[in-house]
Amino acid sequence: MCEGQTEEKYFKGLVTQKTHRRKFAAIDVAIYKPENNSPVGLIKKAKDLMKVAKRDCNDYDFVWVVFDKDQHASIPDAFEMARTNKPEIRIAFTSPCFEFFILLHFEKTTREFSSCGEIISYIKKKGYIPDYEKASNLFKVLDHVKEKGLAHCDWLKGRNQMELDDGARPYEFSAYSNVEVLIRYLYNLVQ
Prior knowledge:
Elements: H1 5-15, H2 21-26, H3 39-55, E1 62-68, H4 75-84, E2 88-95, H5 98-103, H6 116-125, H7 139-142, H8 146-165, E3 176-177, H9 179-189
Parallel strand pairs: 1-2
Antiparallel strand pairs: 2-3
């Protein structure tokens, strides 16, 4: 379940890419973008879908929910609702916004950005994606630098790990992404 159009299009691009499309279709990976796409709304919708699946004797082991910090309220509530849900609701989260995950495909950075627009301007200014448009299908544009992006996410996670181990929450960081965990999970399904 995805909060924003950019996230939705990225993951739809991932599961419909030519090389793995049939395998993803065979294991029934579906991307949803509910009407209430706030982080709490996504968690509530995930819980509803899990109840329906259980009623239909098709229980989910877990659901992934993708959202970013952006200007959303109640993010701590969304994390807590996900943490305490059984079965598990996993969160792929980016701070300050999903575009920071896009930027990590081109450089290692912990740079603080004040807004999503600032990151997009930076991506364009650096020439990484000169014609970047929010909510465009970026998966195809990024596929050739996917491994670099995942490695940079690992690097960033390593930089944040000590504070996370000490109890910091992902939404407390100005630069954070664990989206690579979901991406690796999806690719492991089709290997």
